[in-house]
Amino acid sequence: MAKGATLQETLIQKLDYNQLTNCMRCGFCLPVCPTFKQTGIEAESPRGRISLMKAAVDGVMEPGISFEDQMNHCLGCRACEPACPADVKYGQLIEQARDAVETHTKQHRWWVRGVRKVVFKELFPSQQKMRLLGSGMHFYKKSGLQSVVRKTGVVGLFSKQLSDMEKILPDASGKGITQLLGTFIPAKGEKIATVGMFRGCLMDVMFTQTNIKTVKLLSEAGFDVVIPETQNCCGALHAHSGESDQAKMLAKNNIRAFQEAGVDYIVSNAGGCGAILIEYDHLLHDEPEWKESAGWFAARVKDISTILVEKGRPLQFADSQTSASTRVTYQDSCHLRNVMKGSNPSRQLLKEVGNVTFVEMKDAGSCCGSAGIYNVTQPEMANQILEDKMVNANATEARYLVTSNPGCLLQMKLGIDKHGQKGQMEAVHIADFLYDRVVKH
Length: 441
Ligand code: SF4
Ligand code: SF4
Hints:
Layout: H1 7-14, H2 17-22, H3 34-39, H4 46-58, H5 65-73, H6 90-106, H7 110-123, H8 127-142, H9 145-152, H10 154-158, H11 160-166, H12 177-181, E1 184-185, E2 193-198, H13 201-206, H14 208-220, E3 223-226, H15 236-240, H16 244-261, E4 265-268, H17 271-277, H18 280-283, H19 291-300, E5 301-303, H20 304-310, E6 326-330, H21 334-338, H22 344-352, E7 356-358, H23 374-377, H24 379-396, E8 400-403, H25 406-418, E9 426-429, H26 430-435
Parallel strand pairs: 2-3, 2-4, 4-5, 6-7, 6-8, 8-9
Antiparallel strand pairs: 1-3
Helix pairs in contact: 1-4, 1-6, 4-6, 20-22, 24-25
């Protein structure tokens, strides 16, 4: 991209024009779009955003700040894709548009470059630095510093949203899964296959116990589990924020790590990570030398619930006669549902747990407002969406609200905290919920 190029010129270079013209403006995607449902504004819908992209590329409109805002207001939940009869790849279009906006912005704002460099290039790609972050969070929670900070209300001075999120910080750890379990965990009983565990960068320090329980569930179901130490962040946040070069670099490193491990499947327990892992072939589509390896990788990616149901030995759960029935509901991870097409196996597993009464939540497949870092960058819209979600969650009268993605899990914890239901309803990851009830061999 030539230095000094306009945003319009950058959009022309980055956007797939065929995909833009594939949209026939039918509007079937509008009723499923959370931002359109909240605002009723065409520009806040998938069709509206595609029209804006096309108008900018055709030179009908000069893309300015309001164009950038509309691209940033999109949650990237991709609920519009399964609803689209023309199979418009909206997820690819929004990433291309954001990539163009980011490329353009890089030329102007030095401070944006500084923050992004630290977060996207220094922190997320380095598991060592992520563990340091985990150690810091662990110290913050356990040393008494957290209660001092809360009493002073200092976080609230910066942002009400950050103050709310500080209350639901998980018990982070400075040790990742390989430091606690090693890099190989054998199958219990007869081995079915060898799986590679994708540990995730944030997942491994903020939800270490969930990673451990995921691996132990896989072992119970008959899988040898390998956890390649050289794997890194999946690159989802990078790709969704317009840092496509960095996302590609991370993807290549992961492909190498799991190919060297020689695994049959690659397992993710985070819908947000799994959705980009399964699309590494698309991410690297313009690099022919990576076609075969990226295809090999993408074809092996499975969500934890999907591999347990499709390939694993059936898990045994505690006898349903021994305890009272518990009401359980499930909040879909958008990326697990809309990209990995894996919303049913989770429900199937929950229904197999002995003492569970499964209650389907209204609009369980609609985004909760977490969407990566959306609830930090767009708190107003994220909170509106969360309010609606909690009305539906409360109506289930469930004791447990189960999810399959760390971002959704934190957002549900935030919703429960805000609605004062602590102690009556609990948000849990599906791996934790299942492992705590499975019969161990
Ligand atoms: S990705 Fe989600 S928020 Fe964005 S346009 Fe599609 S349905 Fe709407
Ligand atoms: S459903 Fe597909 S074709 Fe119809 S308006 Fe939406 S994106 Fe365009």
